[in-house]
Amino acid sequence: MMYQVVVWTEYFLIAALFFECWIALRKWNSKIHSYLFFSCASNLVYNVGVLMELGATDEKSYVVALKMGYLGRMWIGLAFFLMIMELCKIRVPAVVTAILAGIHAFIYALILNIENNNLYYNYREFVIQDGFPRLLHNGGPFYPVQTAMILIYILVGLTALILTYMREKNPVARKRIMMMFMAVISIGLSYIIYVFKFVHIANVFDTTIFGFAIGTFFMLLAILRYKMLDTETLARNYVVDELSEGIIVLNDEGSVTYCNKPALRLFPDLEKQSLAGRAAENVIERIRFALYCDEPIKIGDRVFTPKANSLIQNGASVGTLYVIVDDTEHYRYMDELREQKEIADEANRAKSRFLANMSHEIRTPINAILGMDEMVLRETGEKEIKEYAEDIQSSGQTLLAIVNDILDFSKVEEGKMEIVPVTYETARMINDIVNMTKDRAAGKGLQFKVDYDRSIPRLLKGDEIRIKQCALNLLTNAVKYTDKGSISLNIGFTSIDDSKISLDIKVEDTGAGIKPEDMDDLFSPFKRIDDVKNRSIEGTGLGISITKRLLELMGSDLNVESEYGKGSTFSFSVTQTVMTVETIGEFERKDEEEKGTKKKYKELFHAPEANILVVDDIKMNITVITKLLKRTQLQIDTATSGPEAVKKAAEKDYDIIFIDHLMPEMDGIETLHYMKEIKREKEPVYIVLTANAIAGAREMYLNEGFADYVSKPVVGEHLERLIMSYLPPEKLLDTPDSV
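RE: above sequence
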C-alpha cells in the first residue's frame, strides 16, 4: 500500500513540476525566473530518476536510475539557494557560485563512475525491502560533503528569508516570503528525517520527495496566489529596494551613526570608521564632491546618484542623511537614447542624401522640358504652336510644384508645407485647370462640364498653386474612377466682406462611388479604397491625402458626398483676398486675347566681353543654359566633368562659373574647392546650378563657398537677372528694351 502511495506521489510531483517549469518559462524576465526554472528542472529530473528507481528489479537498473536521479538532485539545493538569495535581494558573488557549482559537478562525476570508486559510496548492496527497491550503502568521504552543503543551503536560506520578512513592510510580499519559508522548512525537515532516519519509511525510501512535494505546493501557492513572478510586483519591489539602498547617516559632528548593508557593499571603507571614531573621510568627501559637481558616482559597472537631506529636530540641524540611489539603468537608458539619436540623425542624413539624388533625377528632365519649351515660345511665330507651348509651360510648372512637395519629404513628414499667398488671375487659374483636365476626360470618352460664376473677381490673393493642385487632384481622381458619364467642375464664390470672398470649388462625377465603410480609408496615404474593384487603376493614393492637408493649411476642409455605384462629389472653400472689383467675365475669350498679346521675349542685356563657364555632366542641361543665354552674346564655355572644369578654370579667367552639384568622379562641391585653390588675380563668382531643391540646400551650398544658388528647372529671365547682378558693370551693354 505504501509503495503505491509513493508511486502515485511521484506521478503527482512530476506533473506539478512540469507545470512549474512551464510557468517559469512563460514569465521568464529576470534572474529569479532563471533560478526557479533551474530548481524546477533539477527537481523534475530527480523525481523521474526516483520513479525509475521504484521500478528497478536489479542493481544494474537501480544504479542507472540512481545516476539519473542524481543528475537533478545534485543541483536542487544550489538552484533553490540562489533563487532565495535573489528573492531576498542578497548578492552572491559570481566566484562563490562558480566554486559551489564546481564542487557539485565533481561529486556528480564521482557518482557517474560509482562502480569504479569508493569516494561517494564505499559499500553498496541492492535489496528490496517492504516492496521498495533500494541500495544499501555506506557513505564515502564526499558523501557527508554533499549532505553538509544541502544543510548549509537550507540554514542560510531560512536565515535570509527571516531577515527579509522582518524588513519587508508590504503585506503581500511578506506572504510570498512566508510561502517560500514554508517550502524551505518542508524540504529541510524531509532531508533531516531522511539523513537521521527518524521514521521507519526513511529506512527503505528517500523521504525527501515528500518534502519536495509539500515544498512544491507552497511554491505554487506563492506563484499563483501571491504573484511571486508577477512583473508589476517585481518592479514595485525593485523600486522600493532602490529607494532604501545605500543609506548613510552622519551626526552634526561628522561621524557615521548608521549605514545599511548596501552602503557598506558600495563603500567598504565605512567599516573603518568604528576604529577611529570618525567616518571614513575619503568616502564622505567623494559623496560631497559628487553632490557639489552634480555628477553621479561610478562604482564598478554601476552608476549611483547621491542625494543629501538635512536632519532637523526642534528647528536645529542634528545631522545629514545621504541616500545613494542606483541609477545605472537610467544612465544606460540615456546612453541608449544618445545612440538612438545618432542612428536617427544618420538615417535623417541618409534620407536627405536620397531626396537630393531623387530631386536631381526628377527635376533634371523637367529642366530640359521647360527650358526647351521656353525656346519654342521665344522662337515660334505660329499662334497654335505658341498655345501648345504655353499649355506645356503651365502644366510643367504645376507638375514642378507637386514634385517639390513630394520630394521635400521632411516638410510633409513634419507638417511644414508652406502656404504662400500671391496675387493671381482667377481666369488664368481656371483655364489651367480646365486645359489640364479636358484631354484626360476626352481620352476616356467622358463629358467634361465646366460651370463658373462670371462675377468672380479677376484678381485674387492666395496660394494659386495650392488651390490649383487641390482641384487637379480631385479632377484626376474623378477621371480615374469614372468609366462612363461625365465629370463636372463648378467654381463659384461667396462674399465674406468688401475685401474677402470664399472661393468655392466642387467636382462631381458619375463614377464608382465610395462605400460607407471605406470612408475612413479615403484620406490614408498610399492606400486605395475598394482594391478589388479598382485594382487596374494606377496611382500612389497620395492625391486625396495631400489635398486634405493642403486645405487644412489654408484653413479649409475637404467635403465628400458619395453613393456607391452612382458617383461622388468633392468640394472645398478657401478664403481669398479680393484685389480688384473687376470680374473675370468670359475667361475663355480673355484667355485667347492674353495668349495673342503676350509680351514677346527680349533679352535683358548684351555682354560680348563677359566669359562664363557652365559645368554639368548632362549635356541636355548645358544645351538648355546655352540656348537660354544665346541672345545675350555672352562667351560661354562648357565642361561635362569636374576635372575638365578645373583645367579650364586654370587656363582662362571667367567672370562667372556655374557648377552642377551631383556629378560622377568629382561632384560640384569638390570642384569648387579645387577651383578656389587656383591662384589668379581676380576670383570668379561661383554659382551652384543644381536640381537639388530640398529644404536646407541653399544654406548648405552657401556655407560651402558658393556665391549664389540656382535651382533647376532654370527660368530664362531669372537667370539673366542673376548674371546681370554679378557681371562687372563695364561688361554690360544694355539693350534698347532692357527692363
